[in-house]
Design goal:
alpha/beta, seven-stranded mixed sheet, 29 strands
């Protein structure tokens, strides 16, 4: 395999006057390491291999003596200062780059403008050439300049003045001739350098420059391209091939993987390698501000900017990577939950701190803890000092004081400590700029600092050896023995360089700024760069050696011994693509389609020697690639798939010939578990092996030895017995970790309380409901609602009074709507039974429930049962038996049964004609049961007569007996017909763990 870099290093690597320039820092660093082996030297100067950006700075700085290259941070500071000047100017400086209507919010455009600055040199050069052409062949250029052109011209002038004032230069603007100083530069692979065309003319005329182009794509026996049906098969094949290479003696650190869309594919790839025991090193940078440890600084900012709302305080104090010195951090969060410290607010123009209010008036029965109060005040002061600092140096000082007072840095893991140290380095670098660049310092230094962290890549130092995983492009042309390129699709592996991308297409065409497709160059770089191992690999195989031994008659005894022979594992590149990736369907890159056509093949199979079809791996290629030292297309079977087939009960499936460490651990754990396994309550009854559970049920779910039946219990039990066991019997509750506002439960309690008192007052004064008095009834309801919210004990804390006061209006409005509905349907009826508890024994069961209201018509004693609903109202279909005869909601049939069968009920033995839900949100009645002869309703009403509701009542009683039988026999099995979606959304899924069970 022809490798141009290796040959160049052999020829020039030992010469002091030669420097190799690579497209990227990674390529330069890796080839510098490899150069030691190639040249046989023990040391080489660090400048022997440099990156293109470093070459530009080094070459241009000699022509701008006394000046320094501008940094990305300084560009951002300039852009923010420009936005501030534009905002303060009587007439905005910019009208297009920052639209005039958004001048006051111009900071949001600063980051974009800072990215434009390096490209303005090219824009100016192209614009001048276009102007010369128009002067010779058309109208003057200024006559056609638009607002964008004017803004860009102003930006060139203003930014240039900033550079001159601070003795800086923009490397991307410089186009001076290169002076020959006796150093020969070999610029490798210019086709892969994005802005090389801008310097091509200068470099072509420089005698000290030699360009080494990308060699043409020349596949050999170790160049493979495969198409897979899906991304999982592609990753599995990659891992199996790497496993084979490692077994052949190729060190993991000599293998690399390049991945487009690495943020999506990377975690799946790491998992695939980990499952097979292949060490991997993730060499994709992470933004400092997005790193879990680096988020500390943005969490501090958010805490202050959100006025110490509970969500922001909780995110900071409960972050596991923030090593708080004192336990008060957790105590403060608990205090906020109990006192509902949701958010601060403004009152009469002044900010009210929710925490200080809560310390002043804590929840009922809670004693204020002065330690927590003092700790909170100290923390608040420290955070504000950082976020509202007026300079980077004062922000740094505030952080050091905060760290010393509140954090235990010794508790941090080494990797996390390194991240925070790197963040502090950024703050130190910003502080170092203050004296010289004070005029352009931002108004909020801490916000600028956290924004810088969100844009700064961090790649941890290499601490282990393993397969290197790179983002696509950055490791092209690097000297690994084997390089795997995944997802070589048109969508993700295409590389297009765009000049002046901030301009519209018509302007780019006028300035002759075109796109350059560099995709083929990168594929060629990946294909030509791998180099063979220089250290020979020895592989040992058992052979049989025969030797005579002395006996009565000479015989020959054979014994196996180890025979060792050198193996050449080869080197090469493996390209692959999946027809369906994790982000959607993909198309094979046209480059490989053309390669296949040039080779006289059809389809998108292997471009080298070919490869055998492997149904298990999902490959669609054809051909073979075998031989000593070669990489087989599918070298090994997959033990995981073999194990899965064996576990499925397929008699033809063998047990895996080999097992991965994870599989061995699983088999060991299973064998240690033994044949006698504990019974699972998901698949069988607890009876009689759980006497403690039986005792708990007897104490809490039985009344005088009879199971207690409620509509709520039947509803939960009918859906899933396991859910009822965990939630009701065992009393497991989802932990509250938020300072919540009043919810639907609080609102429902208020509604029921006020409705009961309102209708009791109606019955007491008027005896019957009188439509003529509805305005007065509504007034009563409003007064009762206001008193009820003031006395409500469900919600405490500083926000209770204002929020519950707002709730009172909602409660009054909801009841007013129901009063209007009563005026239409129940005028003259007596609100006879209100909030009545019913409890009685029936057979071997004990029934219990609370009936909200029953109204009676005095003229004929017809009855209507009403159940109030402030939240979701069950649909009629849920209250009637389905095709399988089961109910989803048991409230209406249960309440009818209680009212008609409770010996203490005034309606025992009667027949209730109507049963409705009082829909408080919609201000109407949802009629489930109603005889039109009793209450005339519109024809479109979908209620059912009482005579047709008997199947629902029978289904309710049947479920009650089923419930009683299950409770007595301790049978809480998960229903086999329960949809998986119900389990996936259940609060108990992490306890039940049904969705996590592995089923062959």
């Amino acid at each position: 395999m022809h490798n141009p870099v290796e040959e160049l290093l052999k020829a020039e690597g030992t010469k002091d006057d030669s420097v190799l320039v690579f497209p990227s820092d990674i390529a330069a660093a890796l080839w510098l390491e490899e150069a030691l082996d190639i040249t046989g030297k023990t040391t080489l100067p660090a400048g022997k291999c440099i990156a293109w950006d470093r070459f530009k700075e080094k070459a241009m700085q000699k022509t701008v003596a006394g000046k320094s290259p501008v940094s990305g941070v300084l560009r951002k500071l300039y852009a923010l200062d420009l936005a501030a000047r534009n905002r303060k100017a009587a007439e905005p400086l910019l009208s297009s780059l920052i639209p005039k209507q958004h001048a006051q919010d111009g900071d949001v455009f600063a980051a974009w403008i800072s990215r434009l600055l390096p490209q303005l040199g090219l824009w100016q050069s192209r614009a001048q050439k276009a102007a010369e052409f128009r002067i010779a062949h058309g109208p003057a250029p200024l006559a056609n300049a638009d607002a964008e052109d004017t803004d860009l011209a102003f930006l060139v002038s203003d930014y240039g003045r900033f550079l001159d004032d601070h003795s800086l230069f923009e490397p991307a603007w410089q186009r001076p001739p290169l002076a020959d100083e006796g150093i020969r530069y070999f610029i490798l692979f210019p086709e892969a350098i994005e802005d090389f065309d801008e310097y091509a003319a200068i470099l072509a005329s420089a005698p000290c420059i030699t360009q080494v182009p990308v060699p043409p794509f020349a596949p050999d026996e170790n160049t493979i391209f495969d198409v897979f049906s899906n991304a999982r098969d592609e990753l599995r094949s990659c891992a199996l091939r790497i496993e084979h290479l490692v077994s052949q003696g190729v060190p993991c650190e000599r293998i690399a993987i390049s991945v487009p869309e690495i943020a999506t594919i990377g975690p799946y790839l790491l998992r695939e390698l980990s499952l097979r025991g292949i060490p991997a090193e993730y060499r994709a940078g992470t933004k400092l501000g997005e790193h879990p440890a680096g988020r500390l600084f943005s969490l501090i900012e958010e805490c202050v900017n959100r006025d110490f709302s509970f969500g922001a305080v909780k995110a900071l104090l409960l972050n596991r990577l923030v090593p708080w010195k004192h336990p008060e951090a957790g105590y403060l969060v608990d205090f906020g939950i109990r006192n509902h410290c949701v958010t601060s607010w403004k009152e009469h123009g002044e900010q009210v701190d929710i925490w200080e209010e809560a310390f002043r008036t804590p929840a009922k029965g809670e004693q204020g803890d002065t330690r927590i109060q003092e700790w909170y005040r100290s923390l608040r002061k420290a955070l504000i000092a950082m976020v509202r600092a007026t300079s980077f140096s004062s922000a740094r000082t505030a952080y050091i004081l905060f760290r010393n007072d509140f954090l235990d840095m010794t508790a941090l893991a080494a990797a996390d400590d390194a991240v925070i140290a790197r963040c502090v380095e950024e703050l130190n670098a910003l502080a170092a700029l203050e004296d010289e660049y004070r005029p352009v310092l931002p108004a909020s230094p801490w916000s600028f600092f956290t924004a810088q962290l969100r844009e700064t890549n961090y790649v941890p130092q290499r601490t282990s050896r393993g397969v290197s995983i790179f983002p696509y492009r950055v490791a092209a042309g690097t000297p690994f023995t084997w390089h795997f390129v995944l997802d070589a699709s048109m969508e993700h592996a295409s590389v297009a360089y765009r000049q002046l991308p901030f301009l519209t297409e018509d302007k780019r065409e006028r300035l002759r700024a075109f796109d350059t497709d560099a995709s083929a160059s990168f594929f060629s770089l990946y294909q030509c760069a791998p180099i063979a191992q220089r250290t020979p690999v020895t592989q040992c195989t058992p052979v049989t050696q025969c030797a005579p031994i002395a006996q009565c008659a000479p015989v020959t005894q054979c014994a196996p011994i180890a025979q060792c022979a050198p193996v050449n594992p080869g080197c090469g590149a493996v390209f692959s693509v999946s027809e369906r990736s994790f982000s959607g369907y993909c198309t094979t890159h046209s480059f490989f389609m053309r390669c296949a056509q040039d080779a006289g093949t059809t389809g998108a199979g292997n471009t080298g020697a070919g490869g055998a079809t492997d149904p298990a791996a999902g490959n669609t290629g054809a051909g073979t690639n075998t031989g000593a030292g070669k990489l087989p297309r599918y070298p090994l079977s997959d033990p995981y798939r073999t194990e899965r087939a064996w576990l499925s009960g397929d008699e033809t499936a063998p047990f895996p010939e080999r097992l991965y460490p994870a599989q061995k651990d699983g088999v060991t754990a299973w064998n240690a578990y033994g044949p006698e396994k504990e019974r699972s309550f998901l698949t069988g009854s607890f009876f009689p092996s759980a006497p403690l559970l039986a005792d708990a049920l007897a104490a809490n779910q039985f009344t005088r030895g009879k199971p207690r039946i409620t509509a709520t219990a039947l509803g939960t039990f009918a859906l899933c017995r396991t859910k009822w066991l965990l939630g009701t019997v065992l009393g497991i509750r989802k932990e509250t970790a938020d300072a919540e506002l009043p919810d639907e439960r609080n609102l429902g309690l208020l509604f029921h309380s006020v409705l009961s008192e309102t209708y009791a007052k109606i019955r007491q004064r008027d005896h019957i409901f009188m439509a003529a008095h509805t305005d007065e009834y509504k007034k009563w309801a409003a007064e009762l609602a206001e008193n009820a919210t003031a006395d409500n004990a469900e919600f405490r804390g500083p926000l209770a009074a204002p929020l519950l006061s707002a709730f009172s209006k909602r409660v009054a409005d909801g009841i007013a709507g129901l009063i209007d509905a009563d005026a239409k349907l129940l005028d003259g009826w007596i609100p006879e039974l209100l909030e009545r508890k019913a409890s009685f024994e029936y057979g071997n069961l004990s029934f219990y429930g609370v009936i909200d209201r029953i109204s009676r018509r005095p003229s004929d004693n017809e009855l209507v049962l009403i159940d109030y609903k402030s939240g979701r109202v069950p649909a009629k279909k849920d209250c009637l038996p389905g095709e399988d005869g089961s109910l989803r909601d048991f409230q209406i049939p249960m309440y009818l049964f209680l009212a008609e069968h409770d010996p203490e009920s005034p309606y025992a033995g009667a027949k209730i004609a109507g049963a409705w839900f009082g829909n408080l949100k919609a201000a109407k009645y949802d009629m489930i049961v109603n005889d039109s002869d009793t209450i005339p309703v519109e024809s479109r009403s979908n209620s059912v007569p009482r005579s047709e509701f008997a199947p629902a009542e029978a289904a309710c009683l049947e479920m009650a007996h089923t419930f009683a039988g299950a409770v007595r026999s301790l049978d809480f099995r998960r229903p086999e017909t329960l949809p998986w979606s119900e389990c996936a959304s259940c609060d108990f899924r992490k306890i039940c763990r049904y969705i996590y069970a592995v089923r062959p």
